[in-house]
């Protein structure tokens, strides 16, 4: 039984290096403190159309954008509800991609999995083989872009090119923890649905999920007999077309923060943001190789979350605690019981820089006596 623990407000302010939520700029936090307005007022249309169109510009996509009050998991579920009549091929290589399989199973779909050991990446050739070998046309293939549990960056561009050869099959990408910090050309690689949560590489307060939807995905839902209500693509996109608003009351303060942060992201630019994240990832991996090892398969390391193998056998939990107490910095242990003390993870996403990541690695060195 969980007992109440009163929230006191008296907590040390920690710099976040966990794989989300991550650091949020002060002016973005301040943007949330506006007097409230109604979600059917003109002001809301101004806000939501700005948010949607700026996101399209930032991502460089002609596909449609939905910004919904939810966490990213909402689109893991609604993409299946909207697009899968019966068969889905889920590629799995860690906890979040396994969650995608679990979600589809819970929704009663016929789920085939293409499974990889945790730490390995999904290979485009295997996806082609699985599509060739299947007797049914899969409605959807899913892939996680950035397996936050293992620090693997899957080659979704090449996988998208493979799936594009199967016109009846749509490609759905979970890009939570990657989008905004790792460039992807959505339209070029025929990605029908790609979604993220804003508390990751978008560096916003949590509470909104973003989904980019192709015309094919929209049409598939329109033609299908059932779909998600709340996460239905058609409902959100038609409402946007007619009114420039969301179908139900959004988390307005977080949308105000989104507007502010997206302006910063546009100013930096998608390619420059990608480059900054690449530099942070390279720095972190070089540091990791000096003292530890890098967990994911070589050549598939994430640009936003480094999963580091605890080769010296440090007491990871103790190091995390000491860094937190002495330096007010928070980083993550390995994921779940599988990777618990065997690995630890550093989130280098959002507004972080090589310098801010260096401050953390210096703190770890100090505390662990490296
Ligand atoms: C790859 C991936 N997918 C999905 C999720 C779930 O996102 P949310 O907590 O926003 O629902 C996460 C969260 O860390 C993630 O890293």
Automatic annotation (TrEMBL):
Q: Name any Gene Ontology BP term.
A: glycine biosynthetic process, by transamination of glyoxylate
Tell me which UniProt keywords the record has, alphabetically. Answer: Aminotransferase, Pyridoxal phosphate, Transferase
Q: Which family does it belong to?
A: Belongs to the class-V pyridoxal-phosphate-dependent aminotransferase family.
List cofactor names only.
pyridoxal 5'-phosphate
- In terms of superkingdom, the source organism counts as Archaea
Q: Which GO terms describe its molecular function?
A: alanine-glyoxylate transaminase activity; L-serine-pyruvate transaminase activity
Under which name does UniProt file this protein?
Aminotransferase class V-fold PLP-dependent enzyme
The beginning of the lineage is: Archaea, Methanobacteriati, Methanobacteriota, Stenosarchaea group, Halobacteria
Residue span, Aminotransferase class V domain = 38-285
Could you tell me which Gene3D superfamilies the record lists for this protein? Aspartate Aminotransferase, domain 1 (3.90.1150.10), Type I PLP-dependent aspartate aminotransferase-like (Major domain) (3.40.640.10)
């Amino acid at each position: 039984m969980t007992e109440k623990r009163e929230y006191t407000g008296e907590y040390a302010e920690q710099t976040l290096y966990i794989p989300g939520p991550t650091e949020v700029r002060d002016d973005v936090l301040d943007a949330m403190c506006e007097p409230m307005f109604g979600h059917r007022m003109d002001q809301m249309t101004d806000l939501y159309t700005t948010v949607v169109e700026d996101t399209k510009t930032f991502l460089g996509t002609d596909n449609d954008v939905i910004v919904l009050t939810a966490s990213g998991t909402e689109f893991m579920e609604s993409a299946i509800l909207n697009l899968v009549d019966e068969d889905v091929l889920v590629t799995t290589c860690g906890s979040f991609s396994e969650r995608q399989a679990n979600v589809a199973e819970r929704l009663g779909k016929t789920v085939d999995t293409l499974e990889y050991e945790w730490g390995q990446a999904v290979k485009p050739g295997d996806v082609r083989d699985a599509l060739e070998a299947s007797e049914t046309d899969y409605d959807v293939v899913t892939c996680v872009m950035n397996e936050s549990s293992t620090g693997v960056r899957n080659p979704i561009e090449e996988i998208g090119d493979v799936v594009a050869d199967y016109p009846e099959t749509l490609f759905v990408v979970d890009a939570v923890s990657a989008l905004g910090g790792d460039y992807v050309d959505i339209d070029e690689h025929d990605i029908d649905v790609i979604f993220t949560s804003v508390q990751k590489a978008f560096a916003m307060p949590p509470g909104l999920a973003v989904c980019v939807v192709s015309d094919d995905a929209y049409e598939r839902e329109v033609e299908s007999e059932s779909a998600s209500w709340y996460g239905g693509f058609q409902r959100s996109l038609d409402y946007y077309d007619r009114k420039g608003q969301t179908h139900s009351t959004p988390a307005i303060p977080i949308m105000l923060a989104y507007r502010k942060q997206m302006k910063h992201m546009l100013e930096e630019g998608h390619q420059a943001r990608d480059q900054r994240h690449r530099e942070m990832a390279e720095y972190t991996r070089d540091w990791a190789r000096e003292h530890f090892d890098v967990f994911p398969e070589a050549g598939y390391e994430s640009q936003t979350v480094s999963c580091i193998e605890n080769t010296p056998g440090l007491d990871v939990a103790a190091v995390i605690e000491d860094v937190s107490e002495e330096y007010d910095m928070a980083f993550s242990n390995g994921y779940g019981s599988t990777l618990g003390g065997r690995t630890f993870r550093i989130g280098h996403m959002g507004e972080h820089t090589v310098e801010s990541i260096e401050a953390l690695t210096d703190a770890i060195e100090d505390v662990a006596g490296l």
